[in-house]
Amino acid sequence: MRYISTRGQAPALSFEEVVLTGMASDGGLYVPETVPQLSTDDLAAMAGLSYAEIAFRVMQPFVNGEIDDDTFRRLVTEAYATFSHDAVVPLNQLDANHFLLELFHGPTLAFKDVALQLLGRLLDHFLKKRGERAVIMGATSGDTGSAAIEGCRHCDNLDIFILHPYQRVSEVQRRQMTSVLADNVFNVAIEGNFDDAQAMVKASFADQSFLNGTRLVAVNSINWARIMAQIVYYVASAVALGAPHRKVSFCVPSANFGNVFAGYMAYRMGLPVERFVIATNANDILHRTLADNDFSKQELVATLAPSMDIVVSSNFERLLFEAYERDGAAVAALLERFQAEPTALADAPLARLRELFASHSVDDATLLEVIREAHHRTQEILDPHTATGYRAAERERGDASVPMITLATAHPAKFAEAVVKAGFPGVPLPPHMDDLLEREERYTVLPAELSAVQQFVVENRR
Ligand SMILES: *Cc1c(COP(=O)(O)O)cnc(C)c1O
Fold first, then answer.
1. At residue 141, does pLDDT exceed 90?
2. Taking the domains of the chain in order of start, what are their residue ranges?
3. Ligand 1: centre distance to CA 216 (Å)
4. Could you give the angle at the alpha carbon of 277 between the alpha carbons of 273 and 279, nearest 5°?
5. pTM for the structure as a whole
6. Does 172 sit in the ligand 1 pocket, CB within 6 Å?
7. Is 259's C-beta closer than 6 angstroms to any atom of ligand 1?
8. Which of 50, 158, 179, 371 is the most buried (most CB within 10 A)?
9. What's the CATH fold of domain 86-108+224-421?
10. Is 202 in the active site?
11. Dihedrals φ, ψ of 391, to 5°?
12. Atom of ligand 1 at shortest distance to CA of 310?
């Protein structure tokens, strides 16, 4: 199997190349050339298997024999051994037919661990094989940075530099990054805002000469391996609820669309899914597009569900590629128009999307109400991202006899602000993290100057 670009112009790549490459050279994103199929028998045979074994079976065709089976099985097993729940991603039944899929039992308490625990190990494996080293650079205002650091802290062939805006991330989020004292982990606090940090990372990718030939790797959600790893929990949870013998629906708190696109891939592989409900916060480009065919950028709104605060939803391009029946030129033209002005999808692709996807947007005031209401009805305190999903799932349920699985994307202790605003005293960190606020921290404060940041990278990479 090879991987092709959604804009149809970049060369096709192998799995190894696609893991080491971020965006395609034509500005598109890589997707598999063909979608491997899970037959009814394949799905039925997964009943009762461990999460790691299901993960191996779902992902193995995408790896395409480029990692031998024993090694890949070991990488997968190690990645999911870092989760604190034996089921890795347990299902929690809320009422007669509504389930929460708890994706927050990894090292940083948000679902990004599922992908990044594996991605770090895949990168390290390929780099070792090639006798190369690489540098990871990323900017974060929240979940991605800590998950990337946890995913790479044991990687011999990677050095990771994560930039965060100085004094502008929550204490829990900062400490999740800065208390990792591994030799290959460098936290940089930029005297500026998130956009300053992001701009310096982008400039470093655009001109990598400061690294003298060392590979620079991105771990943001456009990396195919992140999508691949997320397909697994859709399959595992549906099998736990009776797939392939009955359908399920999923509701996904969404921003860059990586998570729900992974669900779509599971569906395309043969998982029986009734519908996907996309939940957004006030940054509702996905909802506006599906509901009103308003595919346009709007001003960023800072919400109580900050990990869903986006203007553009980068992985939506992967779904558009399918909706436009893999016409890369049409996707490229649409996205060029979108960059310049408000636009709309063509009728046929939009109709295709509406057959499978519904959407709902939840503003901050509603979100607080939902946290209270969900607690009243189920005794659960939802994190604010998950709360958008809970409401969207109830509103866009469709056939009530089909089990609805809402993805719980973060642990509520990680987003205490919303929980406290909703009127609760807060939620304690889980036991393995209860000393987080006492742990030693290490980070370097630098001015928001590209040369200072790049010099720091060059001097500190191993
Ligand atoms: C990243 C994130 C999201 C959004 O996921 P996408 O894959 O970008 O759609 C939702 N909730 C939490 C807690 C996150 O960290």
1. no
2. 86-108+224-421
3. 24
4. 150
5. 0.97
6. no
7. yes
8. 371
9. Rossmann fold (3.40.50)
10. no
11. -65, -45
12. 8
